[in-house]
Design brief:
two-stranded antiparallel sheet, three-stranded antiparallel β-sheet
Length: about 260
C-alpha cells in the first residue's frame, strides 16, 4: 500500500499520468536491441538449455543434412537463426541462411534437356527447411533428379503438381525449349530418312502429350521399328488416321 501512495505522490509532483509512464516504458523497451548470445552464454543461461538437453542438438554432422553441432561449434546459437514466440511458435528466419551462404541459381546440365533452378527466388518465398533435407539433401550432386521422379511427386514434384505450384508438365517454365525447336533426322536404310519437326509438333501439342509416356527424354532410344507404330505405340499413338495421317502413308515421313 505504501508504494502505491509513493507512486501517486510522484505523479502529482511531476505531472505524469499513468498512461504517459506506460508509453515511455514501452518506447524504451522497443529501443532495446535484441540480445544475441553466444553458444557458451546460452549453455549457461539461455532458458532453452535450462530444460532441454544440449546434447540433443550436438549430434555428429551428416553429409547433406543441416548440422546444429557444426553451427554451435562455430559460435552461433539458437536465437541467431530462430524466431522465438514462447513454446508455441519456433521458426527458422527465412533469410538467415543467405547471411552466410551464397544462395544462387543452380544449373542442371547432365541431361539432354538442361534447366536452371533459381535458388534465390525460392528462398524468398519458403524457408530452407521446407526443402532441406526432406526433399533435397544439402549436398551438391546428391540427387539424380529425373522427370519420372518429379511426376511421382519426388524432388521438384513435391510442390510442382499443378496445385501448390505450376505443374511439372509446363516444361518451358524451367527448360529452354527454344533450343529444341528444330528437325531431328532419323537415318533409315532402304526407304529413306525421316525428318521429325520438333517445332511443328510442339506448336500443336504440349510436351507431356509425348513425354515420357510415348518417348523417354533421351537424345536417342536406338532404332524405332514400324511394327510397334502399327500397334499404336511411339509415332503410331497419333498417326492412326484419326488424330493424324496413318503410319502406312510412308511417303509423308520417309524422304529418299
Amino acid at each position: 500500500m505504501r508504494w502505491l501512495v509513493l507512486v501517486s505522490m510522484s505523479l502529482l509532483i511531476f505531472g505524469c499520468s499513468p498512461a504517459k509512464v506506460e508509453h515511455a516504458a514501452t518506447a524504451e523497451a522497443e529501443k532495446e536491441p535484441e540480445k544475441v548470445v553466444t553458444r557458451d552464454e546460452a549453455i549457461k543461461s539461455l532458458p532453452c538449455f535450462q530444460c532441454h538437453a544440449y546434447e540433443k542438438f550436438s549430434a555428429p554432422p551428416r553429409k547433406g543434412v543441416f548440422s546444429h553441432r557444426l553451427h554451435l561449434d562455430s559460435g552461433y546459437h539458437c536465437n541467431q537463426c530462430h524466431d522465438f514466440q514462447g513454446h508455441q511458435h519456433i521458426t527458422v528466419r527465412r533469410d538467415v541462411c543467405g547471411n552466410c551462404h551464397s544462395i544462387k541459381a543452380i544449373a542442371f546440365n547432365k541431361t539432354a534437356f538442361p534447366s536452371r533452378f533459381n535458388h534465390e527466388s525460392h528462398a524468398k518465398t519458403f524457408s530452407c527447411r521446407e526443402c532441406h533435407p526432406g526433399v533435397f539433401l544439402m549436398k551438391t550432386g546428391a540427387a539424380e533428379v529425373t522427370m519420372k521422379d518429379i511426376y511421382n511427386g519426388a524432388y521438384c514434384g513435391a510442390c510442382h503438381d499443378g496445385k501448390k505450384a505450376f505443374s511439372a508438365n509446363e516444361c518451358d517454365k524451367c527448360h529452354a525449349v527454344k533450343g529444341f525447336n528444330k528437325e531431328l533426322t532419323y537415318k533409315v536404310e532402304g526407304i529413306g530418312d525421316v525428318a521429325f519437326s520438333h517445332k511443328f509438333h510442339t506448336s500443336a501439342f504440349g510436351c507431356s502429350d509425348c513425354h515420357p509416356k510415348l518417348f523417354e527424354m533421351k537424345k536417342t532410344q536406338g532404332r524405332m521399328k514400324m511394327e510397334p507404330m502399327e500397334k499404336g505405340k511411339l509415332c503410331g499413338a497419333c498417326h492412326n488416321n484419326q488424330i493424324a495421317f496413318p503410319v502406312s502413308d510412308c511417303a509423308r515421313c520417309h524422304k529418299s
